[in-house]
């Protein structure tokens, strides 16, 4: 199999539904976002999928994510704290920069993640 570009997925709010909020790096209580397993499987046909999470900076975080992914049969290529070079990243707390700085502060201040709208 040849080279595949990387797609980065944030964990909380993108793969893990994160409906209970933060419970600690090694406590992941909620179910997956609806349809994410199938989406990742399909994406992995074309891209390397890497999960990047701030949980990974804390003791037990990487192990907890890997255990949770295994529990729900979600297969990825890597779980890490460090953001690798990537084609694109998927994050519930991101703003696409369009090159236009006008109103950027307002866009930041009005931002709400999909599950907090």
From TrEMBL:
Xref: SUPFAM superfamilies: HAD-like
InterPro entries in alphabetical order: HAD-like_sf (IPR036412), HAD_sf (IPR023214)
Gene3D superfamilies with a match to the protein in the record: HAD superfamily/HAD-like (3.40.50.1000)
Protein name: Polynucleotide kinase
Organism of origin: Halobacillus seohaensis
């Amino acid at each position: 199999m040849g080279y595949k570009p990387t797609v980065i997925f944030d964990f909380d709010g993108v793969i893990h539904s994160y409906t209970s909020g933060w419970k600690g790096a090694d406590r992941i209580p909620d179910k997956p976002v609806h349809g994410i397993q199938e989406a990742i499987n399909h994406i992995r046909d074309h891209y390397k999928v890497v999960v990047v999470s701030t949980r990974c900076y804390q003791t037990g975080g990487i192990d907890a994510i890997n255990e949770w992914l295994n529990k729900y049969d979600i297969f990825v290529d890597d779980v890490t704290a460090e953001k690798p070079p990537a084609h694109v990243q998927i994050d519930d707390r991101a703003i696409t920069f369009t090159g236009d700085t006008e109103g950027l502060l307002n866009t930041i201040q009005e931002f709400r993640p999909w599950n907090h709208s």
